[in-house]
Amino acid sequence: MNRYLDLDYIRKPTRRFRRRTLLVVLLAVLLLAGGVFALSRIGFFQSLLAPVSFIVNLGKPASLQEVEGRVNALILGLDTRGGGGLMNTDTILVGSISMVGEDPALISIPRDFWTNLAPYGYARINVAYSYGRTQKDGTFDEEKGIAFAKSKVEEILGIRIPYWVLVDFEGFKEIIDTLGGVEICVERAFDDYSYPVPGRESDPVISRRYEHLRFEAGCQVMDGETALKYARSRSGTGGEGSDFARMRRQQKVIFAVKDKVLSLNLLLDIGKLNKLYRQFSSAVQTNAGLGEIKRGLEIANLLTDLDQIKSLVLDPESGLVYHPDSSLFGGAYVLVPQGGNFDKIHAAVRKLFFGEETTEGGSQP
Length: 365
Prior knowledge:
Number of domains: 2
Radius of gyration: 20 Å
CATH topology of the largest domain: Nucleotidyltransferase, domain 5
Helix content: 25-40%
Strand content: 15-25%
Number of strands: 15
CATH class of the largest domain: Alpha Beta
Shape: globular
CATH architecture of the largest domain: 2-Layer Sandwich
Distance between the termini: 27 Å
Structural class: alpha+beta
Mean pLDDT: 77
Number of helices: 12
């Protein structure tokens, strides 16, 4: 299992952020994966500061695992709050690009997508990694968790996904503190009156289970704990309570970390360099190898127009899923596929990737 150390990897599929979505799909997954930075600590930061020139001088490229002429990668963002070994993947993205550097696309699956996680039964898609990771003897197996989550995403989308990136946002807290904080520009002020307090999930006094968060508008320097709360808040006022608002905030934090790293002359501070290397290594993982990274770079160089990146979000606005009566699901908010199966989703994915028009039930995996 390789470690992936660059942070430029995740963007919400809106036009505002599309210019950097290419970096999500390629640089994070294929170009700057852990195999490059495992070569040496100095090599890690040299490649972070000058990734293209560093990778070009590496060994021969390896063949990428392609699916119908495309490279597909799953990006999972972990939320490790709640204890008990639970590790939900509340950010689920699939990036894809053709082998000739054309038609880059990004698919977002909301964490509330309700699906069959056999043999465990029906549940939200965001628990698939945790279910697969937890073994019968009480131990945990990361690779089995990733494999199980990936298999369920493949079922939903009707495609095969060879590559994956796993990110633990909890690790960003230590990274940000090591960097001395990061600057985040908050677009609009908001409150969250029910932010969970770690360790108090079962407090008999319900009010003690939560704390009140307040974020003012404007640019400000946040320490690790504050930045993590900003990224994780789920019940914000003023439109900040949606999954997609939360994804935007997570992206802000990730790019703020990247910008701070690039602004520091870390090669003159070996102690901090070593510390950050360890923190990055434990926070992000991928299965992309060094040769695949080199080949991915060659594909990236073929791209000419980042504004052409296409996106698909499996939300009610897409017409592919809907929110059923919550009373049927124990009061939980969930999203289920239209028609009770994935046929329409499969057709939409093939149209996104290949421009194909298929009749319902006629999409191909």
